[in-house]
Every structure is written in structure tokens, then in C-alpha cells.
Amino acid sequence: QRMVPRYTHLIADAFRPVFGGLNGDSIEGDLPALRNGGVKVALLAHGSEVRDPALHRKRNPYSLFLDAPEGYEEKLAAIAERNRRIARESGLPVFVTTPDLLLDLPMAIWAPLVVDVDAWACDRPVMKRERPVVLHAPSARWTKGTDRVLPVLQDLHDRGLIDFRLAEQVSWNTVREMVMEADIVIDQFAIGTYGTFACEGMAAGKPVVAYLDKESIAACGVTPPIVNATPETLGSVMEGLLADREGTARLGAESAAFAREYHDGTATARALDGFLTR
What we know:
This is Glycosyltransferase family 4 protein. The chain is α/β, with parallel strands linked by helices. The protein has 13 helices and nine strands.
């Protein structure tokens, strides 16, 4: 009663409740009180809270759910099914931050991820060293497909073609400095879209390599300048980038421009404007 009158709009992040556990463990239980208080509500999804594991497996031969810890997929599937139901039945505006989620929630609007592009901006030249520095920084190996691509990257390293660096269980500041030092950033090979780390790498002006599901990227109508590769093609893709160093460096510059155009917050504000101004 004290809090609701202070607000006009609410974006329910990840479908989580805003009144603690008072009305359950999702935003659904809070909706009657918010509506009674005249608060306009929208839903915002980022990933696993709405992603359908079965659909993801069907369209993605490298799906992260193939390597999920035991019982994890079932738990996520139940949560995601509930949240997709809330999105359908509530009639509320729905926003998603990654393109692939438009396939799970066709009624949603893409509100691109936001990163601090100025903080990530880097003027260090790329592809000037004899052995370019290649960075992979998985938050969790199974969500990035790390074990599928590690042998390829290690082979390139052992052959003296790249200086491969794997960043795990290190601080955010350390990862940021390692991105700044890198020539090429290797993102994920298990989700089929691009997320925060790819945006940060692009903002730093680094060419980013990842597996992109064409259907997911097409859903948002924007194609990022990310080099598309699969675990099977990564070796040849990397050799191509090494062979065309000037072209790879230009790709880094294009990546920085893309990050500033779509991920500095401006495009996201435009996406949310219709909800926030009504």
C-alpha cells in the first residue's frame, strides 16, 4: 500500500515477483495488486526463464541442454513453461534482450542488451602480433560449448598460430583487461545467439567468433558482424581470419560501431518507449 502509489510503470525483470515472496515466486501473483494500484506492467526476459529446452534442442544441434547438469533441464523447462504461459495469458507487453527468445515468445519485442560501450571502448590495434591473442572466457563451460571447441583452439595454439588464453573463475576486472588485450574473442557454441560477453567484445573493437542460429538472428531483423562458426568449422574459420589480418581488423571496427548503434542503450530505449509513454 505504501510502495505501489509511488510508481506508474514496472518492468518485471525475468518474471520475478516484486513483493518478495508475499504472493508467490513469480510476477503473476503480484499482478492483481499492481493493476489495482494503476501500475502499468511489462515483462522482460533474458534467457533460461522462458527458453523452451525442447524447441532449443530441435533447432540447435549444439544445444547447451545436451550438456546440462542432471535434472537442470527439467527444472528450467518447468519454470520456462510457466513464464511463457504468464506472457500469453496476461496480455502484458513483453520484451526480450536476446534475439533467440523471439522464437519462444513471438509476441515479444526485442529490447537489445545494454553494455557500457564507453567503458569497453579500446584503441589498441588488433591483428598486429605474429601470434594473435585469442580469448575465451566461459562463465560456465556447458553453457558456452567450451569442451567442444577447446581442442580446436588448443591445436591452433600448439601449432604456434595463436596465443590462446582461457579465462575461468577470474574477476570481472580481469576479464575486461583480458578482452582489451585480445585480438579475437571466442564466445559461445551452445546457445545460437549472442549475449553480454559478445556485446562487450564488440564494444572493445574485437572480432567475435560464435555459433549463431540463423533462425534466431533473422527473428530480430538485425545481423551482427559476428563471425559464425560451428565446432566443426571453427578451425578453418580461425585460419581464414589469420590469413586476412586486415579484413579481420576491419571486422573489429565494424563490431565496435555495431555495439554502439544497438547496445549502448539507445535502441533499447526506443524499444521500451511505447510502453513507458503510454
